[in-house]
Each structure stands twice: as structure tokens, then as C-alpha cells.
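Class, discuss our next protein.
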Amino acid sequence: QVQLVESGGGLVQPGGSLRLSCAASGSLLQFNYIGWYRQAPGMEREWVASIISGATTKYADSPKGRFTISRDNAKNTMYLQMNSLKPEDTAVYYCRAANYWGQGTQVTVSS
């Protein structure tokens, strides 16, 4: 079993930045797939970004160019750097490693 714990969410003004962290209880190297997802109120959970096979990064269209996914293998942690945030980015953000999920962290973009 691997536990994932997100942190770094909060309230930010439009145009601001946040960096989400997801700390794993075990090595992330064991997973071929890690990623970030989000779920806005009344909406289905949607994919945001992922790292496949340790190197290939992919992004959904909405955050592309604004968000960056990364990982620090030594710290067993993945990150989501979010810049130029918009109100429509407001959601609970979840990290995922294979079939393991974190509990989520709230991101609210509002003036």
C-alpha cells in the first residue's frame, strides 16, 4: 500500500500562482504513471497532467502552458506548479500514482 498526501492548496487571486505537492509513502519510481486530476463542484473529476514512464509529460488542453508537472524521486514527491491561475481552475486537486489516490487539496481562485 502507498499513501499519497497532497498539500499546497489555498486561496489565490486570478493571475497568481500555487505549487501543489504530493508526498508518497513509498518510492514513486515503482509507478509507470503518476498524475494530477481535479474536480470542480458539480463536475466530474478530470485529468490535468501526467508523467508516463518517468519522463514523458502530458497536459490537458486547459492548463497547457500554465501548469507544470514534475517529480523529485529523492523526496518521493510529485509537484504541480500552477501559474496564471483563472477562476475556472477552482477545484479540489488530487494526485494519483497508478491506482492510488490522495485525499485532495482545495484550490480556489477568486478576487
Residues 56 and 105 are 25 Å apart (CA to CA).
